[in-house]
Amino acid sequence: MKKKQETPQIKICGLTRVDQALKCVELGADAIGLVFYPKSPRNITDMKAKEICIELPSKVSSVGVFVNESFEFIMDKVNRCHLKTVQLHGNESPALVRRLQNEDVKVIKLLYTENEPSTINAKDYDASAYIVECDKGILPGGNAMSWNWGKAKEFGKAFPFILAGGLSLENIKEAVTTAIPDAVDVSSGVEFEPGRKDIEKVRAFIKAVSQIEIPIENKRNLRVIF
After folding, report:
1. CATH architecture under which domain 9-218 falls
2. What's the mean pLDDT when you consider all of the chain?
3. How far is the C-alpha of 123 from the C-alpha of 73, rounded, in Å?
4. Which pTM value belongs to this model?
5. CA 103 to CA 93: how far, in whole Å?
6. Peptide bond preceding 38: is omega within 30 degrees of 0, i.e. cis?
7. Is residue 130 within 8 Å of 119, Cβ to Cβ?
């Protein structure tokens, strides 16, 4: 069993290139997110996703991001692309979460603080972990919009969760010390265009997370997500 950690784990999401994924890992990313959603500018092909996954070190989690897809569709991508974890980013049912977990697939379920599916229904899903956002944008996900991260703090006392939504180098310290997440998820905050990461921004972001000191009054044992 992995030991408890002192700073949040880091997921870099929306990768589309092998070289950039490996560089993110070299810099300290714990997970790489691959988006299987045609409406997203970061949507990735099966071939490219597989190329990335087979090159990742075993300690790094490959996370496939899906929006309202069927069990069959998701499992086809899991097997075809060698995904370790599935992130459900739509209105998927608790039954789908359970069915995927019965296939030994780790499941991260998106919940919103201000919309449905809501954080108040977390127990219904019994997912491996949750990704928490506020739902302000047009597409599912953070949409590069920051929000009141403190709304997730109480949730994190009861459930393992990943903080997402508008995170960047400029606000990551405030976000982490306010919400105390087990992990953080960043995409647009470290890009120079959708699907293409600015490696210097990735480097600075990861360094910033590693240097965050959580105030004593807010400390708890952070859980390992990936």
Report:
1. Alpha-Beta Barrel (3.20)
2. 91
3. 25
4. 0.92
5. 16
6. no
7. yes
